[in-house]
Amino acid sequence: MAVFVATDVESAVQRLDDRPDSVVLAGGTDLMVEVNDGRLRPSPDADVVAVNRVAELRSWRHDSAAATVTIGAAVTYSEMLDEPLATLAPALAEAARTVGSPQIRNAGTLGGNLGTCSPAGDGLPVLAALDASVEIASVAGRRSVAVLDLMKGPKRTTLEPGDLIVSFTLPVVDGWQGYAKVGVRNAMVIAIASTCLVLDRQRQRVGLALGSVGPTVLRVPAAETKFAAALDWRTMTAERDAVQAFGDGAAQTAAPIDDHRSSAEYRRHAIGVLTRRLAARGLDTAGRAA
Amino acid sequence: MTNHFTLRVNGADHDVRDSWLGESLLDVLRDRIGLLGSKGACEQGECGSCSVVIDGELVCSCLVMAASTIGQSITTVEGIATDGAPSDVQRAFVDAGAVQCGFCTPGLIVAVHSLLESDGEPTETEVREALAGNLCRCTGYGRILEAVERVVVERRR
Predict the structure, then answer these.
(1) Cβ contacts (< 8 Å) between B111 and chain A: which residues?
(2) Does the beta-carbon distance from B60 to A107 stay under 8 Å?
(3) Which CATH class, in words, describes the domain spanning B88-156?
(4) Tell me, what's the pLDDT at B53?
(5) Exposure b/e, A173-190, CB count within 10 A at least 16 = b
């Protein structure tokens, strides 16, 4: 039983394979809360595999030919706020800025966000709305899957023991994207409801993802298609009724519950408001640029 | 790697022999190394009273697994005063009356030093955003903001 500080992906996945009960430690902002609380005790037969010093996981790269950006799983929220990454993935930067506090943003990572898979994870609606893919490594090799397919339920993913999240690949979108969230204050807040909207001009595609209103992050395909058809993609404008219907569609798709943070009724209402607000913001911004 | 490890804290190496696997850096600093400046309150990263700097990054030491920081450089509030004299930030906190019960003060001192190292001329909004992870239940924050402003003005000279 030991804490293993990995410096490359190969040694990390080898360690995870040798001791299948091992726990992956990234920024620690979720895992250490469990440990401090006594809810999680690393097993005597297992290791803690710390991955926040694996160079490949700590870096990101822009592929301008493919118009994608690939972000390492241990890139922190603070790093997502830095240029030029913030300009390449603006909704991710907006979401990152709403995470916790500077202390949390300096530690918390995108890989940890998906590994924990809370429906309130701030990075997840962005990854979902952008149809991001995630690269996973194990001793068997590497594979790429859609982020949406990996999220199975509250704090449940389809990751197998021995799997390590390596990176995320998301499109650099020609158009507009934004993230909005409702919480009780401007900092240190877990989302009561959140939305990420992507208006991809080149593909004439609308992506909307909802957080904190279902067992995992939700997409709203019917309302997305309807809104994409109602949009004038050349001028980036839409009728007021179309924006209203888009918000209503999102609110209907939401599947919220009552809990200690909010009520289902409030969450559903908030999704409608946030969706309309982002749509208005996106069309205003993109319309002026057109 | 066994559960015996060495941490570099405030420029000195400290042997840690009796911690349990998974023990937080906060507990190791306080209970094993004897550095009591970093405070433990929420133990879930909400309050900032355990703030330390690891390799230049401000973090909550309660959310850091101590054994994962081998080979990194850790600075606690005890590493901020030079030769026993309070730093300009520490002096400004006292002068501005930004210390009441004092429990949040070490974390705030570390956070303010970290902020002013990356940005010597923050706006009030930037100061508020930078200190949003440090809770104080006594002062109402007014005098803390005043203390930061005093340091900014002093450092300009």
Answers:
(1) 102-103
(2) yes
(3) mainly alpha
(4) 98
(5) bebbbbbbbbbeeebbbb
DSSP character for A235? T
Q: Which of residues 7-36 of A touch B (CB under 8 A)?
A: 25, 27-29, 31-33, 35-36
Same structural domain for residues A256 and A281?
yes
**Concatenated DSSP letters for chain A?**
-EEEE-SSHHHHHHHHHHSTT-EEESS-TTHHHHHHTTS----TT-EEEE-TT-HHHH-EEEETTTTEEEEETT-BHHHHTSTTHHHHSHHHHHHHHTSS-HHHHTT-BHHHHHHHT-TT-THHHHHHHTT-EEEEEETTEEEEEEHHHHEEETTEESPPTT-EEEEEEEE--SEEEEEEEE-SSSSS---SEEEEEEEETTTTEEEEEEESSSSS-EE-HHHHHHHHHHSBTTTTB--HHHHHHHHHHHHHH------SS--HHHHHHHHHHHHHHHHHHHHHHHHHH-
Q: Per CATH, the architecture of B5-76 is what?
A: Roll (3.10)
Average pLDDT taken over every residue of chain A: 95
For residue A290, pLDDT over 90 is answered with no
User: Of the candidates A133, A148, A171, which is a domain's last residue?
Assistant: A171
CATH of the domain at A228: 3.30.390.50
Question: pLDDT, tens digit, for every residue of A233-251?
Answer: 999 999 999 999 999 999 9
Domain boundary among A119, A152, A171: A171
| Claim to verify: residue A167 and residue A188 sit in the same structural domain | no
pLDDT in tens, B65-118: 999 999 999 999 999 988 889 999 999 999 999 999 999 999 999 999 999 999
Facing residue for B63 by CB, picked from A32, A42, A50: A32
Q: Tell me what ipTM this predicted complex has.
A: 0.96
Domain ranges of chain B: 5-76, 88-156
- Indicate if A235 and A91 belong to the same structural domain: no
Q: Are residues A228 and A130 in the same domain?
A: no
Mean pLDDT of chain B: 96
- CB within 8 Å: B44 and A187: no
- Per-residue model confidence (pLDDT) at position A155: 94
What's the confidence (pLDDT) of residue B44?
A: 96
Residues of A in contact with B112 (CB under 8 A): none
Residues A163 and A183 grouped into a single domain: no
Residues A202 and A98 in one domain: no
